[in-house]
Amino acid sequence: MAHSARRDSPELPDFSVLKRLARDQLIYLLEQLPGKKDLFIEADLMSPLDRIANVSTLKQHEVDKLYKVEYKPVVSTSDQLCFLIRPRIQTVKWVCDVVNADKAAGKFKRYKIIFTPQKFYACETVLEEQGIFGDVSTDEWAFYLLPLDEDIINLELPEFFRDNFLEGDQRWVRTGGSALHLFHSIYGPFSKVYGIGRCSKMVYESWREQVKEGEQKARQAEVGTVFLIDRDVDFVTPLCSQVVYEGLVDDIFRIKCGCVEFGPDVTSSDKSIKVMLNSQDKVFNEIRNEHFSNVFGFLSQKARNLQTAYDKRRGMDIKQMKTFVSEELKGLKQEHRLLSLHIGASESMMKKKTKQDFQELLKTEHSLLEGFEIRECISFIEEHINRQVSYLKLCPLSLYFFTGLLPKDYRSLKAQYLQSYGVDHLLTFANLKQLGLLVEQQPGETLTVMESKMGKLVNDKTAGKLTDAFSSLAKKSNFRALSRRLSLVPKSDEEYDLRVPRDMAYIFSGAYIPLSCKLIEQVLERDGWTGLEEVTRLLNGHEFAVTADLRPQSDAQRIILVMFLGGCTFSEISALRFLGRERGYKFIVLTTAITNSARLIEAMLDNHV
Amino acid sequence: MMKSKADEEDYWNSSKFKAFTFDDEDDEFTKKQEVEPQLPHRVFPASCFLFPAGISWSVRETASSLREQSFPKIDTTPSLPKNSSGYSLSSLFKGKEGEREMMDCAAVSLEKFRSLQEKLLLLDEAVGVHDGNVITAVLIYLKKSLSKEVLFRELESRQTALRHFIHYLTESKEQRLLLELYRALGRTEDEALLQYKEHLRITDENKRRDFLKSCVSLPFSPEDAGHVQDHYTLLERQIIIEATDRQAETGGKVEIFQKFPRRASILNMPLITTLYYCCFYHYAETEGTYSSPANIRQTFRIAEKQYFVTALAARAKLKAWHDVDALFTSRNWLGFTRKKSPLSFSRVADILSKNNAPVQVLQEYVGLVDDVELRVALAQKYKCHFIVISTYRDLKDRQLLLGYRGKVERGSEEERKIDELLSNPQIRWKN
């Protein structure tokens, strides 16, 4: 099951230095406020902080008490307060309230705000407007890169997605450039950069500017190739239900900063347990990229092996027993513990996922991807809306394909959606439209049902003409055209053995090769975008491929940094790992956040204050 | 690797204003990767934006003065109109170049830019460097130093800057100015939606209802206007229903509220939740009342299928099987009754079984499933033996019937029925 790496696969660089660097920077900043101080930490910085520093580290640098930012008045007796926050107006306003309340009460304290990864001018304007500019010192903690695993680095900036793609705010472009710059300074110099998407282009430019500004020492490159990709190049992939183990665990239990909390149904006790999920967990490491249907078989085999290992104790003499206990038992026990956890998790997921509903959901998703039986898909979706199935579980992929519907069907589904989940979702629909996930058709335009029926009846050329005749389809059927051109949907009449994956489609049960990963594969293979002109046209362009005038080193060339702007899914990471094994590459994923269908839809919600 | 639930974030969640300590145990991943860093603390300045005091502006060098570049520049904004004057931002800061070595970027006060031309140039330059932080900084300055009319007018042709401005106003909650902006730009639907969104801030239900009423006349698309009208009508009714039912519940005289106390208020729930609630508590009411399901169905033009699913779920939950029966029974003009359903009978059976309907009820609907294979599968799943038996009889499949004999209870009615069929000489078995 564990695929042996190709012999010539290059080694991944060591990312631990990134943690150490971030920690030292933080310590340096804390020391800028000498003496005892209370530290207030933004809620979503807690887990990232926990990955690089612990309480005793903070205590050593005179942090007295720690608080979570809760937007409430603070009760702190310290005369020095330090706020470690994201550069958000709302949080800064809260800090202003704290400072002004102290002022009103005649308390005089020292305040420091540490923005991470950088400060924004708009935040400082708030300090100015609230009359406390100068009373509060500000600083920046350039904590860009959090290594989550040996091949995943996370910026932990989920808001990147909404800010950039929905709001059209480019505030994180420089952040992206700085993150890349930091990576480049340690693991570069890069010799090739490919990319696609508007944001990717801008991040590339920002990075290039920063490289120009700074010193670059001549060094042996560890990572030579970079691929930048915008999330809006491929919305279909993150909207699909995940069926690879790690992705499925994320969909069901939500992995947060590389850590998951398994509830009592998994641990078969009354306690919940937090587990770090990464390559250090030997059991997890072997199943994380596997299609879920293979996982059980693997785990039970593993359990049998473990039993055999335990059974070795029988018939041992004292000396052998001593060696066994000191050398093997601990490892076995650790493995035992992990094994029972993952078996518990699998069982729990099995219960949820083998239900008829999930099978139907997957079937619907596959039909949507293939563009067949759209009528059935509509009634499936309708039925789920009628039953008020949570809109996060309701095949988010269907939202994308709402776009290809007859205006009549679209209006009817939208009306039913609002009836089931609340009229407030008008705001969600407006956001989806703004994002480009949903394109409202004008009356008189054609329907996908018609297209798919016609497509079956007539040859491609005629179908193409028909499609052209209905101009609207050109916009939304880009996916179909892309899918045909890149063969994203394998022929369904062939058997697909999920135990022996033949391509990246295995991550979606053999039904679909993720567009994002397919693009990466194609560009690497062609060493650029040549021959993909039609594909880039369908993706609205913004592709680039640049080469530095450096002598490329072959090993570093094959270590490829893929930077996802707007987030990537665990399924995509699994697909890239597969591609790496097949082609002798090593991929490092640098993402603004780990995403999935639920997070993507949640980012579009506005029906709360 | 593992930490128990009690620590860390859960502790945070539970501690109110109290300080805490989480355990100092480092995770293995961190420990393993600890090595001495080779880099000094601040090798990589996060941003050259230091804004040391007051409003400041940073200048980036033009390419000419730079060191050899190894990567080429790519055109990031092919559509951006280049200013024709040849008057570039950096030329405004002549003589600043020398400071480059001292600071990463030179800081200059924005207040220098007084003419509209300079201000707009500044904005266009900011957009050109693709740093949202800079764009917003310039916009904040322009907001302070230009009249709304002029600013809005100039933003109209600058989409990137406009989106930054809208986002800034949204984040700093300057609703009124944002509405004015939308109005000035003629973006009426955005204006309507933004105003409609305000209802979320209103907690008092009567005020919220009145506010929603005022939203109906906002310039929505005709389709959305209908939805907003529904929202208002729904809340209006929920307020009436809630008041009446709360009274009935506390009065203790209405049986259903005693037997099934309400779990939550119906206020601000979606329409379908409201329909379910009314099918649960007010099923038998005549169409004249606000809470009658029939009235709700009609007022909100609820699709037939949707209505059936909801009514079925509510009545099945109450185990009111005769209501379920009546729901699907229709009478033709001759007075014969037959079962009709807008949703498939297999789905009906599914909903019923999830509500623990007895076999007698279930078999009625399983028997109506057209597809023979599906019918047998469902009948076996729900243990509707008679349906299985009669289907096998209709198929004249003696072998299957014989096989099924082993699955029913010894001496049961089902067994007797099978024996009776097997010994019936009038059936022409196919095997």
TrEMBL record, chain A:
<keyword id="KW-0653">Protein transport</keyword>
<dbReference type="GO" id="GO:0016192">
    <property type="term" value="P:vesicle-mediated transport"/>
</dbReference>
<dbReference type="InterPro" id="IPR043155">
    <property type="entry name" value="VPS33_dom3b"/>
</dbReference>
<dbReference type="InterPro" id="IPR043127">
    <property type="entry name" value="Sec-1-like_dom3a"/>
</dbReference>
<dbReference type="Pfam" id="PF00995">
    <property type="entry name" value="Sec1"/>
</dbReference>
<keyword id="KW-0813">Transport</keyword>
<dbReference type="InterPro" id="IPR027482">
    <property type="entry name" value="Sec1-like_dom2"/>
</dbReference>
<dbReference type="InterPro" id="IPR043154">
    <property type="entry name" value="Sec-1-like_dom1"/>
</dbReference>
<dbReference type="GO" id="GO:0005765">
    <property type="term" value="C:lysosomal membrane"/>
</dbReference>
<dbReference type="GO" id="GO:0031902">
    <property type="term" value="C:late endosome membrane"/>
</dbReference>
<dbReference type="InterPro" id="IPR001619">
    <property type="entry name" value="Sec1-like"/>
</dbReference>
<dbReference type="InterPro" id="IPR036045">
    <property type="entry name" value="Sec1-like_sf"/>
</dbReference>
<dbReference type="GO" id="GO:0015031">
    <property type="term" value="P:protein transport"/>
</dbReference>
<protein>
    <submittedName>
        <fullName>VPS33B late endosome and lysosome associated</fullName>
    </submittedName>
</protein>
<comment type="similarity">
    <text>Belongs to the STXBP/unc-18/SEC1 family.</text>
</comment>
Automatic annotation (TrEMBL), chain B:
<dbReference type="GO" id="GO:0006886">
    <property type="term" value="P:intracellular protein transport"/>
</dbReference>
<dbReference type="GO" id="GO:0005769">
    <property type="term" value="C:early endosome"/>
</dbReference>
<dbReference type="InterPro" id="IPR040057">
    <property type="entry name" value="Spe-39"/>
</dbReference>
<keyword id="KW-0968">Cytoplasmic vesicle</keyword>
<dbReference type="GO" id="GO:0007034">
    <property type="term" value="P:vacuolar transport"/>
</dbReference>
<protein>
    <recommendedName>
        <fullName>Spermatogenesis-defective protein 39 homolog</fullName>
    </recommendedName>
</protein>
<keyword id="KW-0967">Endosome</keyword>
<dbReference type="GO" id="GO:0005770">
    <property type="term" value="C:late endosome"/>
</dbReference>
